[in-house]
Amino acid sequence: MARLLKYEMKKGCLIVQLAGDFALDEAYDRFLEMLNLVDTHNTKKVLVDCLQVKGTPSVTERFSYAKFCVDELWKHAQTTKLGELQFAYVGVEPLIDKDEFGQMVATNRGIT
Fold first, then answer.
1. Does residue 75 come out as left (phi exceeding 0), alpha (psi in the -120 to 50 range) or beta?
2. For residue 87, which of 3, 18, 19 has the smallest C-alpha distance?
């Protein structure tokens, strides 16, 4: 199960490093942790390092994760004054989808 290894602030960007095996329920939990860190550090930019996360999420898992993230980002935007947040994920295939399916799901749901 992917776990949060460490995080640091660097030039206004929260850098989060994850490791372990991919599991959808854990991915949800890690995203909520990252939102809490965003609030704690009052930042709008997050770089998520998934280079040490292993697994091959299914299309359904990719869709579910993207939808969950979008829903949580909309909730977050309504309860804070930070505005739109920027998340960037770094990893390798097959964990990261070269066709950017998750990004398409988020864009179709109003996240740029």
1. alpha
2. 18
Q: Give 77-89 pLDDT, tens digit per residue.
A: 999 887 889 999 9
Q: Are 87 and 72 in contact (CB under 8 A)?
A: no
Of 82, 70, 69, 3, nearest to 38 (Cα)? 82
Distances 31 to 37, 88, 97 between C-alpha atoms, Å: 10, 12, 18
3-108: CATH topology is Transcription Regulator spoIIAA (3.30.750)
Q: Is the pTM of this model over 0.85?
A: yes
Secondary structure class of 26 (helix, strand, coil): helix
- C-alpha of 60 from chain center: 16
Distance CA 3, CA 17 (A): 9
Residue 56 to residues 11, 36, 69, 89, 97, Cα–Cα distance (Å): 32, 27, 19, 15, 9
